[in-house]
Design a protein that fits this description.
Blueprint (H helix, E strand, L loop, with lengths): L1 H21 L1 H4 L6 H10 L26 E3 L6 E5 L17 E3 L12 E3 L5 E4 L17 E3 L10 H4 L7 E3 L22 E3 L21 E3 L24 E3 L21 E3 L6 E4 L2 H5 L6 E3 L4 E5 L15 E3 L9 H4 L8 E3 L6 E5 L11 E3 L4 E6 L12 E3 L9 H4 L8 E3 L6 E2 L14 E3 L4 E4 L13 E3 L4 E5 L13 E3 L4 E3 L15 E3 L25 E3 L6 E3 L3 H5 L5 E3 L4 E5 L12 E3 L4 E3 L6 H4 L5 E3 L13
Parallel strand pairs: 2-4, 3-5, 4-6, 6-7, 7-8, 8-9, 9-10, 10-11, 11-13, 12-14, 13-15, 15-16, 16-18, 17-19, 18-20, 20-21, 21-23, 22-24, 23-25, 24-26, 25-27, 26-28, 27-29, 29-30, 30-32, 31-33, 32-34, 33-35, 34-36
Antiparallel strand pairs: 1-2
This protein binds 2-acetamido-2-deoxy-beta-D-glucopyranose (12 copies).
One 2-acetamido-2-deoxy-beta-D-glucopyranose binds next to strand 5.
Length: 636
């Protein structure tokens, strides 16, 4: 009897020890907390647009940490991120009215460890009464990221938001905030680093503005109606000394905004595009305080010059890499006024009405300049000096919509690093010169389309072996059917020669091209009857094509379905407006991923092949109109 008892005792003791050793595997599971799972299921009906929350199931024990749009802490198994963005349709089911609704924030209370809550794009109009965000403040003390962008929220929620003092990131972009007195509430969120208020209706930022947000690194107020940033002389902006990014585009700010920048010496990115800045911008001193600025966007204003009152002081932003002055009223003396910006890599000054010529000597100081966009001006010439310093770094030049002399191509060879040259619609006339520009051994993209260039491509052209993209469309070149001038361009991927003239060579010459094209655009090039039976032979050697346009070329014979056989990656095949005849016959072995075929306006006869859907499983568009095809009675 004693023995029995002792045995039992030993057994129970072992069981207890096992329990202790096994620990939590017995008392809990790896799954998420049951009350968080149930809370998610309560949220589901509000955010289940198009059944996006399929994995959120009402099965007891289902691990909600594995559900979509949910992220848990792997140790505590508690929710830390909930991504309910774009989870509701903006309109009522009849698509007539906005599907505005009110959020019950109490539904998030169970998620005590939540760090990130994404609720953008859900047509939220506000909170249910007494269920504002402030309710979360004491429980969700780790909440750092709150995204409420793209909803219908207005100032009435701001006071309750201001209680979420743990927030570091707050996105209120694209709502209906007006900034009446309540923006002051945001001023309480002193841990904020990122604040996005863009695309609202803010006219002014009242009282002390956001002067308390001294940790702010990123502030976006673009696309509101802000006229002035100061409030009764109080310069709140200059208190935000940690700001690195300030976006103020698309408001109604005047030049005086620059007076508020003095203290923002950490600023790296400043955007003031599309405001009411204009005339002479005299605030050189204020701008020069932004010693760390890398990116400055002043485009879309009416600025004529950047200088200080006595004209002596220049912009000296030694870290500035990108300057956008597009869409202003500068003249060609702007380059000299900026010549202390020695680190500039990109200068955009398109659409300024720059007249006459630019002396490239004026750009000599920009020894790091890589990209210069001078399109849409009234430029007539670039004065290029053979020994100029700028030539060694410049990689991209855009002069579209200028009025240039074709001679410019003879001297442009000094830009030895040039990779992109864009001379779209520049009034270039006559044949291309046979020297100078062919020295551009690094040229990858050349656009001389929409000019009046003519004749054969010069021999030196075949030296441009780095070319990847060549656009000579809408010129008057004579392109030999053999494509011999291009044959040597082993890196060529896109060749756009629409609306030039294809010609036969004087001597018979077939060359196997060194290139494998991805894009060929060749419409309206073969006009003469003599050529109409010939196919450009280089096409036989291509097997990497994705886009082929041979429309309106008077080509005859059977449809070149071999293009589909040779080029397994082909997506678009446009053969419209030729004279292809016969029935459209497809090899039974052919299966192609092509998504669009246009053979309209040809002379096809017979029936559409019945197996066409299995031959082209990814076909989205098939144009066969204006042929002589038989009406189809059954289409398999
Ligand atoms: C998960 O929770 C543990 C314990 O609270 C904490 O130490 C850890 O930092 C958390 N991890 C994450 C990614 O939040
Ligand atoms: C929701 O937001 C997260 C974080 O910004 C993003 O990665 C995700 O793509 C968004 N999802 C949808 C459906 O927009
Ligand atoms: C909000 O949600 C909580 C928790 O689900 C609930 O107790 C409360 O009644 C809701 N409030 C309203 C006004 O519906
Ligand atoms: C803000 O939105 C709430 C809820 O939709 C509405 O009742 C209130 O009138 C709005 N307030 C303003 C200033 O537009
Ligand atoms: C500001 O935050 C404090 C606590 O940090 C809070 O007591 C106060 O109510 C908040 N003020 C506003 C206007 O929300
Ligand atoms: C805020 O949200 C908008 C729209 O969802 C997004 O485009 C923007 O990048 C976000 N802002 C920040 C600072 O992340
Ligand atoms: C600014 O911050 C201080 C303390 O950091 C706080 O006492 C004050 O209420 C804040 N001001 C506003 C307008 O929130
Ligand atoms: C600039 O910052 C300093 C110190 O951070 C501050 O004392 C001063 O008032 C600020 N200037 C302006 C114009 O606000
Ligand atoms: C260019 O603009 C500056 C500043 O507005 C002006 O002083 C100068 O006369 C202008 N030069 C020309 C050639 O128009
Ligand atoms: C041009 O480059 C040379 C060598 O890099 C340098 O010595 C000279 O100062 C530069 N000239 C200008 C105007 O920057
Ligand atoms: C191509 O360049 C080489 C030197 O790199 C030169 O000798 C040759 O003449 C050039 N060819 C043509 C046709 O200009
Ligand atoms: C492409 O098709 C043509 C005509 O069938 C054939 O002569 C040529 O060898 C093919 N080229 C390749 C690369 O398969």
């Amino acid at each position: 009897m004693m023995m029995m008892e002792w045995k039992w005792l030993r057994f129970i003791r072992m069981a207890v020890m096992l329990l202790v050793l096994e620990g939590c595997r017995w008392c809990t599971t790896d799954a998420c907390l049951e009350h968080e799972r149930i809370a998610l299921l309560h949220l589901k009906p509000f955010f289940n647009y198009q059944n996006q929350l399929q994995s959120w199931v009402e099965v007891k024990g289902s691990d909600c940490c594995k559900w979509e749009r949910v992220e848990c802490n792997t140790t505590t198994r508690r929710l830390i991120q909930l991504s309910l963005n774009s989870s509701r349709w903006f309109y009522t089911t009849d698509n007539r009215n906005l599907n505005a609704w009110y959020l019950n924030t109490s539904m998030f209370l169970p998620f005590e460890e939540l760090k990130s809550l994404y609720l953008s794009g859900n047509a939220i109009s506000g909170n249910l009464e007494n269920e504002g965000f402030g309710k979360l403040s004491s429980t969700l003390s780790n909440l750092e990221i709150l995204d409420l962008s793209e909803n219908y929220l207005n100032d009435s929620i701001l006071l309750s938001l201001s209680e979420l003092s743990s927030l570091r990131y707050l996105n209120l972009s694209s709502n209906k905030f007006e900034g009446s007195g309540h923006l002051r509430g945001l001023n309480n969120l002193s841990n904020l680093k990122y604040l996005d208020l863009s695309w609202n209706r803010i006219e002014s930022i009242s009282n002390k503005g956001l002067n308390n947000l001294s940790n702010l690194k990123y502030l976006d107020l673009s696309f509101n109606n802000i006229e002035s940033i100061s409030n009764q002389g109080f310069q709140w902006l200059s208190r935000l000394t940690k700001l690195e990014t300030l976006r103020l585009s698309g408001n109604s700010l005047k030049n005086s905004i620059l007076l508020h920048m003095r203290n923002l010496s950490s600023l790296k990115t400043l955007s003031l595009s599309y405001n009411q800045l204009g005339g002479k911008l005299l605030h050189i001193q204020e701008l020069n305080h932004l010693a760390n600025l890398k990116y400055l966007d002043l485009s879309g204003n009416k600025i004529e010059s950047i200088s200080n009152k006595d004209g002596g002081r220049k912009l000296e932003l030694t870290h500035l890499e990108e300057l956008n002055l597009a869409g202003n009223h500068f003249n060609t003396s702007v380059f000299v006024s900026l010549n202390k910006l020695s680190n500039l890599k990109s200068l955009s000054i398109w659409d300024n009405g720059l007249k006459g010529s630019i002396d490239m000597k004026d750009l000599e100081a920009f020894i790091n300049l890589r990209k210069q966009d001078m399109s849409y001006n009234e430029l007539k010439d670039l004065v290029i000096h053979q020994d100029s310093n700028v030539s060694s770094s410049l990689e991209e030049i855009y002069l579209d919509y200028s009025t240039l002399n074709t001679n410019i191509l003879q001297s442009i060879g000094v830009f030895a690093s040039l990779k992109t040259l864009s001379l779209y619609h520049c009034g270039l006339i006559g044949p291309l010169p046979n020297q100078g520009w062919c020295d551009l051994k690094n040229l990858e993209v050349l656009d001389v389309s929409n000019n009046a260039l003519e004749g054969m491509l010069p021999r030196c052209f075949s030296n441009l072996t780095s070319l990847r993209v060549l656009d000579v469309s809408r010129d008057h070149f004579q392109i030999p059917l053999s494509f011999a001038p291009f044959a040597n361009l082993s890196n060529l991927k896109a060749l756009l020669i629409n609306e030039n003239k294809m010609v036969m060579e004087s001597s018979f010459y077939t060359s196997i091209p060194k290139f494998q094209l991805e894009v060929i655009r060749l419409p309206k090039c073969i006009a003469s009857q003599q050529l109409s039976r010939k196919f450009p032979t280089f096409l036989y050697y291509q097997y990497d094509l994705r886009y082929v346009d041979l429309s309106h070329n008077n080509l005859s014979g059977t449809v070149p379905t071999w293009l589909l056989e040779n080029n397994t990656k082909l997506e678009d095949l446009i053969l419209k407006g030729n004279s292809f005849t016969g029935p459209l016959s497809l090899s039974s072995a052919l299966i192609s991923d092509v998504s669009s075929i246009d053979i309209s306006e040809n002379k096809l006869q017979g029936q559409i092949p019945t197996g066409i859907c299995s031959t082209f499983p990814h076909l989205r568009e098939l144009f066969l109109s204006k042929n002589a095809l038989k009406v189809i009675s059954h289409f398999v």
